[in-house]
Amino acid sequence: MMKLPMQASAEGLDVAFVGVPLDTGTSNRPGARFGPRQIRAESAMLRRYNSSTGAAPFDSLRVADIGDVHVNLYNLPDSCRRIREYYQDIAASGCVPLTLGGDHTITYPILQALAAKHGPVGLVHVDAHTDTGDSALGEKIYHGSTFRRCVDEGLLDCGRVVQIGIRGSSYTPNPLKYCREQGFRVVPAEECWMKSLEPLMREVRAQLGDKPVYISFDIDGLDPAYAPGTGTPEIAGLTPAQALEIIRGCKGLNIVGCDLVEVAPMYDVSGNTALLGANLLFEMLCVLPGVKTM
After folding, report:
1. Other Cβ atoms within 10 Å of 79 Cβ, number
2. Per-residue pLDDT tens for 200-219?
3. Angle subtended at Cα 24 by Cα 45 and Cα 149, rounded to the nearest 5 degrees
4. Residues 131-138: contacts with CB under 8 Å, at least 24 apart
5. Under a CB-based contact definition with an 8 Å cutoff, are residues 119 and 39 in contact?
6. Which residues partner with 121 through β-bridges?
7. SS3 per-residue string spanning the chain
8. Which end of the chain is more exposed for a tag (fewer CB within 10 A), N or C?
9. How many CA atoms lie within 13 A of 113 on its CB side?
């Protein structure tokens, strides 16, 4: 990732890039298992410094790529176990994981591992979908149930959860009811159209405070005009500029991990979806605690 050195584990690192090539939990178009590979390839364009914000992450933190989690593509619960155990080791080392997905199922076992160390975490969740379904075809674990399972297990500090960019048709007449009953703040895409999100992010920073926060960014939160390479695209989404405002607006939060999920490269032969994903991961690195500015 970003032409960084490879390392076998997170030991001695402040930040580790980790790939989770899993798409067994997808409900529409598969292919996110190839996301980490393509994001890494497109990340070769990224350089050391963020010239817009002045962030100098590689002058501030020890960063490396520690490769991929060895998932079991034939068994989703077993893959979740493998991911959870892998991230428990990362958390025990004191390293902050930046994850290349993979479908959104992977966030569930990652948060199991991080909440075991930090307690229930706040969440900045960018997505077209709330991912709070209860089950699909009788299965409780899939990419649309991630945050329902997290709530069930007490992994989230529900009063410090913000979901941004939600949109699309739904199976029920009030698809946001469950989220709001849990205390989540839900910001539909319509509330983001044609405006800067800097004022929103000031409110988000105040809401999340100084306790641990996790950032989960589904690439389908962006409009498919910018990010067509994903499994469940929805029209009328966020712009890349708004994505930067959201991530840069997390500067100052106590971020304990981040992920960028649902890049499915075969639906975008230009490579631009993966390029966008790589840039957003760089932006996440730039807002982590301890990053100095030039």
Report:
1. 24
2. 999 999 999 999 999 999 99
3. 100
4. 131/104, 131/218, 132/178, 132/179, 136/27
5. no
6. 156
7. CCCCCECCCCCCCCEEEEEECCCCCCCCCCCHHHHHHHHHHHHHHCCCCCCCCCECHHHHCCEEEEEECCCCCCCHHHHHHHHHHHHHHHHHCCCEEEEEECCHHHHHHHHHHHHHHHCCEEEEEECCCCCCCCCECCECCCCCCHHHHHHHCCCEEEEEEEEEEECCCCCCCCCCHHHHHHCCEEEEHHHCCCCCCHHHHHHHHHHHCCCEEEEEEEHHHECCCCCCCCCCCCCCCECHHHHHHHHHCCCCCEEEEEEEECCCHHHCCCCHHHHHHHHHHHHHHHCCCCCCEC
8. C
9. 24
Beta-bridge mates of residue 37: none
Terminal C-alpha separation, the chain: 23
pTM, two decimal places: 0.98
Q: Which of 275, 218, 233, 240 is nearest to 43 (CA)?
A: 275
- Which tokens sit at 55? 């962030």
State pLDDT tens for residues 42-75. Answer: 999 999 999 999 999 999 999 999 999 999 999 9
Tokens representing residue 34 in the block:
């190839």
| Cα–Cα distance measured from residue 235 to residue 222, given in angstroms and rounded to the nearest whole number | 9
Residue linked to tokens 């030039």:
294
Torsion 228-229-235-241 (CA) sign: negative
CA pair distance 104, 261, nearest whole angstrom: 6
**HSE-up of residue 242 (Cα within 13 Å, Cβ side):** 24
Query: What number of other Cβ atoms are within 10 A of residue 180's Cβ?
Result: 12
- Spatial contact of 243 and 10, defined as CB atoms under 8 Å apart: no
